[in-house]
Amino acid sequence: MKRQMKWGALLVCALFAFTAHTAFAAQGMSATGYEKTYGINIPFTPSQRTSRYTFAVYEGETAGGTALVQKELTITEAQTLFLALPYDYAAPETYTLAVTAHPMPGREGMDKAATKTSAFTTAPTCGHTADAGGYLAGDGSEQSPYVVSTQAQLSHLRQHSAACFWQSQDITLSGTWTSIPTFSGSYDGGGHIIYDLQVANSAEGALFQDVTGASFSRLGFVSRGADVGAVYTSGTLGRNLNQCTIDQCFVDVNINGVPNRGSDVGGFAKALNDTTITNSYSASTLSGNALCAGMSCYLQNGTMNNCYSVSSISGGSAGVGGMITTYNPVNPKVTNSYWLLGPASSPGGGVRITDKALFGQEATFAGWDFENIWTMGTVYADVIGEEITAPVLRAFQQTGARDYSLPQGAEDETAGLGFSE
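RE: above sequence
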């Protein structure tokens, strides 16, 4: 929707219109991983009398109170401006855009400043309603991913299973979760956590079931109050991940497979097939009746690099492993990866560490990037039932040491004004 606005006679004349739906502009990568900025596009044609303008956005239906963002610009030709706006991604909200035209120097006695305003309401951009979990920002492309900030929006992935997503804040789930059947898009957790995942599936469960060709990054899972759980097979991220990439993710959960049902339990997944997982870790309590491993039961023709597990692993009558299980591995490649105590072996490579103090020394993890990806922090090592010093991911360290037991919102974004693509 576009609205045409004109300045009155004898005032500075200008014509402008703006689109009420949101826009996206990519910023530089930051240490915390918050590099995506959303806002509004403003198609703008300046007056012939002045090139001096102030753009401001206010919360609500009037231009009152303190502006959420305000910028002064010199504009000499028609263009589309992008105004970064830290608006609510969770629910539709009404805002007011105010544009003030200022007289040019020397014309203050002939012209005077004038302001025009227009209210707009954010609305879903994905073709579904907000009540159905529709996304209020992005278009699902790699350049402008849908923004996920609520449980309803997370569940709404099943309606856009090939799209790109970015999580803007921690999400705490309530009730039981029905696994998303398929996914082939990309999911950037933005350095945020999904709390309290409890799977409702009676047979096989995780956030997703079968995933093919997807990518996951900077996403954490914490579920301590109740088991992620599954009757038959389970991981946290997915049951079967095929031809996927996982980078800078962690799981800190409880998963208990039901006895006497042949349950296979891995920290991230039951099976990683032709999948690459890097810079990730598992600090969980895992129990599988058949197979059980810190990261995944299977790593079929896949690679695991710069990963570790300090998980408690039990059961596994058919096979256990520090990182993956000893059962029927197919060409697994595990490099620069470590697990603490627990199973004596893990196929494909990896090193078993018996001294917890070594986990607190960067020298143990030769080749790991402690400048950009990792830093030393505190992790609860389920295998010994206590906190230890160990590598943690910088993507989750927004403000110093992070308390993983408490959800955190999105980092405040610095508003800016620039040209949209």
